[in-house]
Amino acid sequence: MDAKNANSALHPILKNYSNGGSYNSPELHVERPIYQIQDLHKDTLYEKPYSTVKTKAASYCNSIHPAQCLLDRIPLLRWLPEYSWKKSFLSDIISGITVAIMHIPQGMAYGLLGGVPPISGIYMAFFPVLVYFLFGTSRHVSMGTFAIVCLMTGKVVSEHANVEIMPNGTEKLMDSYTEGSLKLTNVEVAVTVTFGVAALQLVMFALRLGAVSSLLSNNLVSGFTCASAFHVASSQLKDLLGLAIGKRRGNFSFIYTLYDVGLALPKANSTAVMVSLISCVILMLNNELFKPWLGKRFKMPFPIELVAVALGTGITYFSGIDRTHNVTTVGYIPTGLPEPVIPIFNLLPEIWVDVVVITMVSYTITMSMALIFARKLLYEVDSNQELLALGLSNSVGSFFSCLPVTASLSRSMIQQSVGGVTQLASVISSILLLIVLLWVGPVFQTLPRCVLASIIVIALKGMLLQIKDLPRHWHLSRWDGLVWGITFFVTLFVQISIGLAAGVAASLVSVAAQGLTPRASILGRLAGTDLYLDLKRHKAAEEVPGLKIIHFVGGLSFASRDSFKELFVQKVGFDPTAILRKIVKLRERGIQMDAEEQMITKGIIIDFCSLTFLDPSGVSFLRQLQSELDSLNITLYITGCSGRVYEVITNCDRWEKKDSNFLIFPTVHDAVLYNQSNGLIKDIVAFGEKNK
């Protein structure tokens, strides 16, 4: 029927419906023969797709074009010629200025969190960002400092550094230094971590392991970041309260840190506590009240963090509370670009576990942010290219006192929301930060560290409140809730790296358990249709007399065949193996038992339309099941096999030189009609023989 005739046919129906008449659903009438799968394949010219290694290699080589490769490896060359300077450049300038303002307080705060001088956080927003501008595929992520990655790097620094580079550039021997041991400064350890992360990211790019981030599910990342946020918050209690306590290392550090803070609480610096309290209140009032109100009127957010930094610096400078009340300040901030620092390559074997964990966390969070913006704004990001961009960014940063860079949620959201269109916004931001590095940096020397700690803690609010996600994950899926809980509690109470490993292990167990646990349901026919529905859920469906129709979901392999057998026995109501065993035992005693007459079920249909996987062990199991049912004069039908499942069966028959003789049908209805027609033929034959 052509389009004109179709519209003519539909017009009376639509007219009647629009006039308030009843609308009857269209009816479906199909006439075709009852197909077995072999007949269907013959009529449809079925052919298994076939390709050799040679043809695959030739196809791959033909798809390689040097110019295309260059564009793929340097995405800047693809989008910059198409960039609309008239429409987008002003938006990128505004976005870049806004993000630069956020980088200054966050960079300094997270630099301290990473165990390095505050200025290193500004370096992270300059050198790696320029490299990402060339090689990154996301147009909106803001690269630089990220609290959790800085905390994890700071943990490695505190464990291995024995010499601290003070803000004024001098070296101070730490308690962990022993006479004659190799001197490792905090900056050297940090850049070694960054170099290790960069090397691993480049190796992952070469091996095309961009999809590895899928190992970290959303619920795992939520539990991990939430617990890590508590670690970050606990690490800031020292500066918030003005306490002189050391960093705890190793397992249970969160508990020990809280214990140390509790013991030292009577010695808290009241002035530092007051400054922290005022800073936190101002930041919270801005975030909860002023920011939403202002957001309805202006695109650009109010730079409250920079205001807090400026006020803290100015008040301390003019009041001198750093000298009169012992309020710890940031101290000396150098001007100019940093001198290159060579990573300590001999340290890499000792920190490789932390490097792997930091790499996974950094890449997963960056990819998550990139995908959020790509889906929202309808463009593509390349997961493998992101590995290259991150690897090269960290490679350059590792020689300039940088910690591993990651996309920041807050900065990225601001960069996009104020109108940022491309990574040119990051270039604008870097230019402004270069001015800070060359001339403005020393202005912040009197900034109290408790102000930076307040900025960090308030910025963590969203991550800390993720603890409310546990009930939601639990109600959505018990397995998701279990993964979230294991990841959170092990990360929080044991150690960050162990928590991530525990979360990944729990996720893999969850996937394996759910994948290896098949499910099944008994289907019944909806009267007058060819629809077969779950009897437990659809009360109008009725079981076909003499037939058991089992819908199977999952995989049938060596690992799941026992579970499949249990489900099969449970659904059909008898165990063919046990019945045959009972018959043999009775015959040994001279007792004859005719099982056929006692069996109500004359046929069993297994619907494999949701079968995800079949291996040779599964085929062998089906052969055994068919043999046992044949002995009981019960016919086994298989329906809904995908092409791959059918090819596994035929391949096993060919190589094992066996003929399974499975009755395979494309649909359940074909099998039901075939069974009923065979039953009718048998009845006619029996009636004829009876009346001879």
Automatic annotation (TrEMBL):
GO terms for cellular component: membrane. The chain crosses the membrane at residues 93-113, 119-135, 189-211, 271-290, 302-321, 351-375, 387-409, 421-440, 447-467, 482-509. It is a multi-pass membrane protein. Residues 537-675 form the STAS domain. It is found in: Membrane. SUPFAM superfamilies: SpoIIaa-like. It comes from the Eukaryota. One of its GO terms (biological process) is transmembrane transport. It holds the Pfam family STAS. Keywords: Membrane, Transmembrane, Transmembrane helix. Its main location: membrane. PANTHER family: SULFATE TRANSPORTER. NCBIfam families: sulP (TIGR00815). This is STAS domain-containing protein.
